[in-house]
Amino acid sequence: MKNNSEVDFAIADEDMEFLKNVEQIEHYGEASVFPVYAKK
Predict the structure, then answer these.
(1) What pTM does this model have?
(2) Which of 39, 21, 37 has its CA nearest to residue 29?
(3) Could you tell me which of 39, 16, 14 has the C-alpha nearest to residue 26?
(4) What is the C-alpha separation between 10 and 18, in angstroms, rounded?
(5) pLDDT in tens, the chain (40 residues)
(6) How many Å apart are CA 34 and CA 37, to the nearest integer?
């Protein structure tokens, strides 16, 4: 965990805009049963 907090990176403004506008995945197939994908 500590190593992850030490990572230094930047996301360009245009990359962030792209990520904000990515089409949302509506169904994760068999993985939909996992809470992280369940959208509850």
Answers:
(1) 0.47
(2) 37
(3) 39
(4) 15
(5) 677 778 888 899 999 999 999 998 887 788 777 776 566 5
(6) 6
Query: What percentage of the chain's residues is helix, strand, coil (to nearest 5)?
Result: 50, 0, 50
Written as six digits, the tokens of 35 are 């809470």
Integer angstrom CA distances of residue 5 from 8, 9, 19: 8, 11, 22
Q: At a CB cut-off of 8 Å and minimum separation 6, what does 31 contact?
A: 37
Which is nearest to 11 in space by CA: 3, 21, 19? Answer: 19
